[in-house]
Amino acid sequence: MNVLYESNIKSLPLISRGKVRDIYSVDESKLLIVTTDRVSAFDVILNDPIPGKGVVLNKMTEFWLNKFSDILPNHSTAVMPEDVVLKNEIDQVKDRAVVVKRLRPIMVEAVARGYLIGSGWLEYQKSGSICGVKLPKDLLKASKLNSAIFTPAAKAEVGMHDENVEFDYVIQLVGSELARRIRDITVELYSRASQFALDKGIIIADTKFEFGIDSNGELNLMDEVLTPDSSRFWPVSDYKVGISPPSFDKQFIRDWLESQNWNKKAPAPNLPMDVIKKTSDKYNEVLKRLL
User: Which UniProt keywords apply (predicted)?
Assistant: First the structure.
């Protein structure tokens, strides 16, 4: 398998390297996004790539974007990545890159939660709410919520932690009309995807979406969509209230890191080969089940 930790496209100007994606300029209206095999945990980029991870993320995002195309437009263009790079660079973009529209990003992680887990569970234990959304008393870890909720987070720079915020923060950032539209679409996308996945034996506990504004002032879905990097996927067969269910995402890596004597600052411990392989297997398994 072709493992790509960091792309090196010389034929296009490099704009930035994120935790997972490398972004290049194609022209004034388009970008090339290369999804590498890098993995991050606790906002630290790990030294060890997960083989094939970028291909899985790219395929899953393409699948969901097509499925949601009737709800709102997205960042995709009809341009093939292979057509904007040199021949000797095609291996770096094949199956793991996309040419997208340049959008003005909205600096909010649009998080939808259907189950009580992760940072939402920690916040609920302290306040009985998540991002200002009051929840019933006496819920347990991994409890299914009565209905999906919108719990935004302020986007942070690479290496910094995203911060959960209340809906008023989004209103102040983009205005009440657009904030309500982002909230409603986030919940709609999550709800539709959750039902689809449930029929495949997968619970989507939570996920995050990102949005941007195009040159016509229209809201677009962008970045990754419902991937194992941006979502918690649980097998229905192993789900139990009160525990953190086994997952088809990078929670497996987080759990291993939590068992190490590490302060959650770079550099992170090197991953053992069995953790790398099992994580790769989990990503490919959820791709196979959903698609």
Answer: ATP-binding, Ligase, Nucleotide-binding, Purine biosynthesis
CB-based burial of residue 178 (10 Å sphere; 0-12 exposed, 13-18 middle, 19+ buried)? Answer: middle
The answer to whether 234 and 202 have CB atoms below 8 angstroms apart is: yes
Q: Please tell me the class of the 14-102 domain.
A: alpha beta
Cis peptide before 267 (omega within 30 of 0): yes
Query: What is the rounded CA–CA span in Å between residue 109 and residue 207?
Result: 10
Query: The whole model's pTM is what?
Result: 0.94
Domain boundaries, the chain: 14-102, 105-249
Choices 3.30.470.20, 3.40.50.1110, 3.50.50.60, 3.40.50.300: CATH for 105-249: 3.30.470.20
Q: What's the rounded Cα separation, in Å, for the pair 95 and 54?
A: 8
Q: Which residues contact 223 (CB under 8 A, 6 or more apart)?
A: 21, 75, 210
- Whole-angstrom CA distances from 120 to 117, 166, 168, 244 are 6, 13, 18, 13
pLDDT one-digit tens code per residue, 17-61: 999 999 999 999 999 999 999 999 988 999 999 999 999 999 999
Which parts of the chain are beta strand (E)?
14-17, 21-25, 30-35, 40-41, 44-45, 97-101, 104-105, 108-115, 129-130, 133-134, 144-150, 153-154, 163-164, 202-213, 219-222, 231-235
Distance CA 150, CA 133 (A): 8
In 151-283 the beta strands, taken as DSSP E runs, fall at: 153-154, 163-164, 202-213, 219-222, 231-235
